[in-house]
TrEMBL record:
Span of domain DUF4806: 60-137
Protein's UniProt name: DUF4806 domain-containing protein
Family matches, as InterPro entries: DUF4806 (IPR032071)
Organism (species): Acipenser oxyrinchus oxyrinchus
């Protein structure tokens, strides 16, 4: 048979309190780690801007936010050129956000005017245009993954 060591209730409370503090410390460290990741991403975006030597600019014939399908189609044509794609990637990198969902919202707001944005969805269902099929989406996804 096993013998159970005698622990008085004060010692048990002391052990449980210590475990609770340790659990709280681990949770706090995980939160700090998450916030550090966000800060590192923000610093990387700032460093990109500083290393470029100047503010990132788009081609003269690209005006954001886009407000018509014609503007979207024109930008899609321009994005076939590597130099334009690189400029757009650099520009989107300057927008950023503290996390991916925030970055996506901010980038989308910079890219598409409100009225035009309502005419898109991911797959192009229900008489809407597909955002998934756009080169702009590829550029945006590439920037978020970098």
């Amino acid at each position: 048979m096993y013998q159970v060591a005698h622990i008085n209730k004060y010692e048990l409370i002391k052990v449980l309190n210590s475990a609770a503090r340790n659990r709280h410390s681990v949770t706090s460290l995980e939160e700090i780690k998450s916030e550090l990741t966000i800060v590192k991403r923000m610093v990387a975006n700032i460093a990109k801007q500083l290393n470029s030597g100047s503010e990132v600019a788009l081609q003269d014939d690209v005006s954001l936010p886009l407000n018509t399908f014609e503007q979207v189609d024109r930008l899609e044509q321009l994005l076939e050129e590597k130099s334009c794609k690189d400029q757009m990637t650099a520009f989107l990198g300057t927008i950023g956000g503290v996390d991916d969902p925030t970055a996506v919202r901010r980038i989308m707001a910079a890219l598409l005017g409100n009225e035009l944005a309502t005419k898109f969805n991911w797959k192009g269902l229900g008489n809407k245009r597909s955002f998934y099929d756009l080169k702009l989406r590829e550029v945006m996804a590439g920037e978020l993954l970098s």
